[in-house]
Amino acid sequence: MEYMSKEGYDKLVAELQQLERVELPRVRDAIAEARDKGDLSENFEYHAAKREQGRLLSQIRYKQKVLEFARVIDTSNMGSDSVGLLTKVEMSNLTTKARMTYTIASPHEANLREGKISIKSPIAQALLNKKVGDVVEVRVPAGLLKLRIESISR
């Protein structure tokens, strides 16, 4: 079971609809057009379109499976006293004195540019169930980080 925000769920549904209603028919048309050109054994356009169709069908099946097991979390019922899924955490790196803010998100919603890290990441795992003022040590590929939680919000 995968927990995610309503926005993440809606985005995944929109991506699936785009693949099913726009991309897949476009590829099927390309296959039909390439098939009409004759000999399929040496028809590059046909083989490229078939590969694209396989890739799209794989993406569609994957997104359908994620949506099948997805559960949308209602954040209005959740407190903000400890770190959990869909909480925004502001923390300080005690070594470099740098401050950073991340939202703990499902793996399907994680996007570092948007400040969303996966709940399965080492930093998120170390922060889970911690409270404001707690100091956590996180082993990351770059070494050991010491982080202090400054604030938690929804």
What fraction of residues sit in β-strands? 25-35%
For the biggest sheet, the summary is:
5 strands, mixed
Instruction: Please tally the helical runs, counting DSSP H or I stretches of 4 or more residues.
Output: 3
Low-confidence runs: none
The main sheet orders its strands as 5-4-3-7-6
Short account of what is shown:
It is built from 3 helices and 7 strands, in the order βααββββαββ.
Please write out the topology.
Layout: E1 2-4, H1 6-35, H2 44-68, E2 70-72, E3 88-93, E4 99-105, E5 116-118, H3 122-127, E6 135-140, E7 143-153
Parallel strand pairs: 1-2, 4-5
Antiparallel strand pairs: 3-4, 3-7, 6-7
Helix pairs in contact: 1-2
What features would you describe in this structure?
The chain is of the alpha/beta class and 154 residues long. Helices cover 40% and strands 25% of the residues. The chain contains three helices and seven strands, in the order βααββββαββ. The strands form two sheets. It has a five-stranded mixed sheet with strand order 5-4-3-7-6. A two-stranded parallel ribbon has the order 1-2. The longest helix is centred in the N-terminal third of the chain and has 30 residues, at 6-35. The radius of gyration is 22 Å and the shape is elongated. The two termini are 22 Å apart.
What are the defining features of this structure?
154 residues; alpha/beta; five-stranded mixed beta sheet; two-stranded parallel ribbon; 3 helices; elongated
